[in-house]
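#help-structures
NK: newbie question, is this the right format to request a structure? protein is Ribose operon repressor
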Amino acid sequence: MTTMKDVARLAGVSTSTVSHVINGNRYVSESVKKKVNAAIEELNYAPSALARSLKVKQTKTIGMLVTASDNSFYSEVVRSVEGNCYERGYSLILCNTEGSVTRMIRSMETLLQKRVDGLLIMSSEHKLLSKDFLLRYPLVPIVTLDWSPFDASSDVIKDNSLFGGELATSYLINRGFRKIACIAGSQNTSLSRQRLAGYRKAMRNAQLEIPDGYEIHSDYEFAGGLLSMKKLLQLPEIPEAVFAGNDAMAIGVYQALYQVGLAIPRDISVIGYDDIAIASYLTPPLTTIHQPKDELGKLAIDMLLYRMDNPDSEPKQLVLTPKLIERDSVGQR
């Protein structure tokens, strides 16, 4: 294998000069650069990223933990994160947790052992991990998206889910609906609890009753929405409208209604949450609460890079404001 010493020998310079040319961290004359680059090309030399990272104590890589899901919300955020990493000269190492706390811990240890420069966490696992877990890997900046698995403070970017849940439900109420059900996510995370709380707040403010069975705790997946809507259809009095805690479950609601011959919004109106890419291509296009996924990815990288440069600064929390996207899945009573 060709080494830096081989390049230096052929170019007639020192190994430190070769290093300066490769890394661009010291001035080297143009004539010397040409000799070094010619030697590199002739010997087909590839610099060792590992060796460089050991020397500069930086790998130019960012690790990301994300829950594997059929919900494209995650993939859309990951795409934004990867694009912003690339623009800033970093590579992204992605690990799926598959909904397993054990796998989350193992993946996190793997990323930390690889000495990633920073870590992004966007996972739905709800078991809190002790901050002692990180003591073996000091000074690793961490930014969490929506929810943190640690009992210690860290930088967090989150959705204003209370406002979003209230916004979705109030929209249904303003369209004349009174019998409104909510298919919420698992109540083990604050995000899910806040969206449900927003639904309850809007119903309470409108002095509307929430009948037994109108609140269902599901799992943010297509199948969860399907099964939940089937339960609602078995109630003595089925709802006029449904607020699904995310678009994936809303798509499951579409399927459940299709299977029994009910039409949206003629028979039941539906509103989702997230505004994933497919939402506008459904029949009818889905009215939903928009989360700024591109902005979320950019802010996550910006915050992580700031933390790398300012490790002693106070933890930050950014709250993104969702907005209503009106399409055709909600009718008028």
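mod (FA): yep, format's fine, and the tokens are attached above. The CA atoms of residues 181 and 206 lie 14 Å apart.
NK: thank you!
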